[in-house]
Amino acid sequence: LREEALQELEKASSVKDIDEVRVKYLGKKGPITEVLRGMGKLSAEERPKVGQLANEVREDIQAKVEEKTEEMEAAALEAQLASERIDVTLPGREVKRGARHPLTAVIEEIEDIFIGLGFQVTEGPEVETDYYNFEALNLPPDHPARDMQDSFYVTDDMLLRTQTSPVQARTMEKHNGVGPVKIICPGKVYRRDDDDATHSHQFMQIEGLYVDKGVRMSDLKGILNTFVKNYFGAERNIRLRPSFFPFTEPSVEVDVSCGICAGEGCRVCKQSGWIEVLGAGMVHPRVLEMSGFDAKEYSGFAFGMGVERFALLKYGIDDIRHFYTNDIRFLDQFKRV
Ligand code: PHE
Q1: Phi-psi region at 18: left, alpha or beta (left = phi > 0; alpha = psi -120 to 50)
Q2: Mutate to test the pocket of ligand 1, among 132, 165, 221 (most ligand atoms within 8 A of CB)
Q3: Is 31 in contact with 25 (CB distance < 8 Å)?
Q4: Least C-beta-crowded within 10 Å: which of 32, 88, 144, 319?
Q5: Which atom of ligand 1 sits closest to the CA of residue 283?
Q6: How far is the CA of 279 from the centre of ligand 1 (A)?
């Protein structure tokens, strides 16, 4: 019986097999249990011998079961380790690194310059009410200047903002008529336009607003001059030309003198030596009043610039659509910007 059991255990090839053999020989219904149970019927002489033998057999089988089980588990562990083995000396796979989008890089650069001049960065909603996008900026319904910016309406009085100027009104309202207000606001704007090399129905603007007691046109000129020299280079100058915006009076368009540049920007530049880069002016008294400021006490200036234009001019990019088509070959060139 012992030999039989030991042989069967030797052949067992899984933990489950071993357990079956154990139950078969040592279980409640197995032969050993049976022998031990039948001890009472034996003579006093035979009893200790049979008992001893049965116990020996049982212990041997039990020992073999344990030995085999351990062997089995060790083999399983070995196999698992082998299958999970990794070669730590293999060279790694290269992770392709992304970079900031050129427009993001330009916005951050411009933000840094204005933060250095004491401005705070704010934001406003892209889906805007007709009131903030037009009315609060001195463009009542039916005002012809609304046609300057063809719009995407969402409902009768909600639209995708056509400019970042509504943030002027929103910010002034929050100040409850108490200055100073000194902010810039970058963000997306939308206009109905046919997309081509120089037009996009969605683009980015950065708005600036400075309202305080005694802010003058010369402050506007000084801030913009400092900004342009910081962004394009110290040799650049600005020039102001009279213009019209309903929310500023007087209004100006601001040109930058041309420097050493490349691409479309330069070609435009070569003819006159100047290139237009932003709109600006002194905040219209009516706009100040509508947003809760006393126009007899406070004055201010505002400006708005197109971010793409600043990027095109600085990097000599010839088509605004490059910014939105996400061609890796284009974006890769800005990794170090
Ligand atoms: N919002 C104007 C535009 O989009 C630009 C501007 C901003 C002009 C602030 C004056 C003052 O054309």
Answers
A1: alpha
A2: 165
A3: yes
A4: 88
A5: 11
A6: 5
